[in-house]
Amino acid sequence: MRTASRPDTEVEVRRSARRRRTVTAYRENGRTVVLIPAAFSAAEERRWVDQMVAKLQTREERKRRNLASDEDLMVRALELSDAHLDGRAVPASIRWVDNQNRRWGSCTPADRSIRLSSRLRGMPEFVVDYVLVHELAHLLEASHDEHFWALVRAYPQADRALGFLEGVEHGSAGASRPDDDELEPGAVD
Ligand SMILES: [Zn+2]
């Protein structure tokens, strides 16, 4: 086992005597793990690691692009509702907005509308999914009470996403941001 530092992410290469020809790569706790056969030469290792990292990035990039439009957001939201909220949260509309500079998303339970800050664009999929689940859960529970958080934590990566977003907010503290972030009447964030 050895660890190599890459510009984008830490890569850990694990050699396995049981592997003959297959190479596998996945993300684990923020780093990239590449499983290769023990018999690979150093040159083979380099070539395969580069190839697998590029492949993972392409796949993740495609996933991000898939949420480009408001329609994509709606499809994703319904999938998440089915997967984690028994399909009970059904929004009437979801859209990306550019005027939420302090909050990641907001929801108006009365008309079942959800808005996601465009600052989320390009963030990892599990983070965008978390904000979607959060706003979807507000369709079922408007306040941030215990019941609400129990709904949100049905999404397995909720705490990880919260940690990620806290990090982003911490990192941008002090950065000047436009102040146009008033909640619409009846909306929660
Ligand atoms: Zn909320």
TrEMBL record:
<feature type="region of interest" description="Disordered">
    <location>
        <begin position="170"/>
        <end position="189"/>
    </location>
</feature>
<feature type="domain" description="YgjP-like metallopeptidase">
    <location>
        <begin position="97"/>
        <end position="155"/>
    </location>
</feature>
<dbReference type="InterPro" id="IPR002725">
    <property type="entry name" value="YgjP-like_metallopeptidase"/>
</dbReference>
<protein>
    <submittedName>
        <fullName>M48 family metallopeptidase</fullName>
    </submittedName>
</protein>
<feature type="compositionally biased region" description="Acidic residues">
    <location>
        <begin position="179"/>
        <end position="189"/>
    </location>
</feature>
<dbReference type="Pfam" id="PF01863">
    <property type="entry name" value="YgjP-like"/>
</dbReference>
<dbReference type="InterPro" id="IPR053136">
    <property type="entry name" value="UTP_pyrophosphatase-like"/>
</dbReference>
